[in-house]
């Protein structure tokens, strides 16, 4: 199966809803807002198997020093095929001149996954959030 990577916003509201719900992310319950949010990001790279959106990464950056990976998701039916690694590779290449590319891992397994893909776990740093609604 060939996976095609795109750097445009050819994804639809239904595409992102299906992808995000496949990984049980709450954002998928708000597909119109999710699509608008993605369309406003500096970088979105998508992975396609035919006409099916199977993976996506998006980055918010400051234009000079720091890029933040916001979402990296791959439909579970397509995990283990190197799609996430390829999306990360493309982001690392695009932002190679930045001082930092930052990602927040939400569980221990993801820490290991990102480390395997060249990221370093920084102990002593803490993530804080406030949830609205």
Explain this structure:
The chain is of the alpha+beta class and 133 residues long. The protein has a single domain, classed as Aminopeptidase. Helix content is 30%, strand content 25%. It is built from four helices and five strands. A five-stranded mixed beta sheet has the order 1-2-3-4-5. Strand 3 (52-61) and strand 4 form a beta hairpin. Helix 1 crosses helix 2 (31-39). The termini are far apart. The mean pLDDT is 93.
Topology:
Elements: E1 4-6, H1 13-22, H2 31-39, E2 43-49, E3 52-61, E4 66-74, H3 83-94, E5 100-103, H4 108-116
Parallel strand pairs: 4-5
Antiparallel strand pairs: 1-2, 2-3, 3-4
| β-sheet strand percentage | 15-25%
- So what's the oligomer here? single chain
> Order of strands in the sheet with the most strands?
1-2-3-4-5
* DSSP helix fraction: 25-40%
How far from one another are the termini? 41 Å
CATH C-level label: Alpha Beta
Largest sheet composition: 5 strands, mixed
Shape type: globular
Short description:
The protein has 133 residues and is an alpha+beta fold. The chain is built from four helices and five strands; from the N terminus they run E-H-H-E-E-E-H-E-H.
């Amino acid at each position: 199966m060939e996976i095609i990577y795109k750097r445009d916003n050819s994804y639809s509201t239904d595409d992102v809803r299906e992808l995000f719900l496949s990984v049980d992310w709450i954002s998928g319950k708000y597909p119109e807002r999710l699509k608008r949010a993605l369309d406003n990001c500096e970088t979105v790279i998508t992975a396609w198997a035919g006409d099916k959106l199977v993976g996506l990464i998006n980055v918010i950056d400051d234009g000079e020093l720091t890029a933040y990976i916001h979402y990296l998701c791959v439909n579970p039916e397509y995990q283990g095929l190197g799609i996430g690694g390829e999306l990360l590779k493309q982001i690392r290449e695009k932002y190679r001149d930045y001082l930092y590319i930052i990602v927040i891992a939400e569980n221990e397994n993801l820490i290991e996954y990102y480390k395997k893909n060249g990221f370093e776990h920084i102990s002593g740093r803490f993530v804080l959030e406030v949830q609205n609604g």
